[in-house]
Design goal:
This protein is mainly β. 0% of the residues lie in helices and 39% in strands. It is built from no helices and ten strands. 28% of the residues are buried.
């Protein structure tokens, strides 16, 4: 997957309770028109955008985690968010280091101005657990996640 910082929702974001992604994409900045092509609608010229979500630190404590791709007219995804995709409840046993939680082709639909992810914790809030989530024009075939502090010596 080709990753751009502008398409990254979470860069090893610690999830310690229900929250939205550390980055919410503004699909219509001040220089752009307020209507039409959002840039992530997909399928234009045969290019689809993909969302990939990977565990960068194993989780503890929680019962399950649900992740939704949402868009809203408010930057905080707080007024009337539209849910475009959902993982469903992912049990703690599946939230291990390196686990790929989602590899979605983004739906070709109308997105509201702000698009981001919502992480919904069920059960006890975790004291550890982190996620990487980004959109890009292709999927990674190999993306190994290593624990923090891992060094490559060569």
């Amino acid at each position: 997957m080709i990753i751009d910082s502008n398409g990254t929702f979470s860069a090893s974001q610690a999830i310690t309770g229900t929250a939205i992604s550390q980055n919410v994409l503004d699909l219509r900045n001040a220089a752009a028109p307020a209507v039409a092509d959002d840039g992530i609608r997909g399928g234009a010229a045969g290019v689809w955008l993909w969302l990939e979500i990977i565990v960068t630190q194993a989780f503890n404590n929680l019962t399950s985690l649900t992740i939704t791709l949402e868009s809203d007219s408010a930057a905080g995804l707080s007024t009337a968010p539209v849910i475009h995709l959902s993982t469903g409840a992912i049990p703690l046993a599946s939230l291990t280091l390196g686990a790929r939680l989602a590899r979605w082709r983004l739906p070709s639909t109308d997105y509201k101005r702000y698009t981001g992810l919502r992480y919904t914790v069920a059960g006890t809030n975790p004291s550890q657990g982190a996620l990487f989530a980004a959109i890009g024009p292709g999927l990674s075939s190999r993306n190994t996640m290593y624990p923090n502090g891992f060094a490559i010596v060569g």
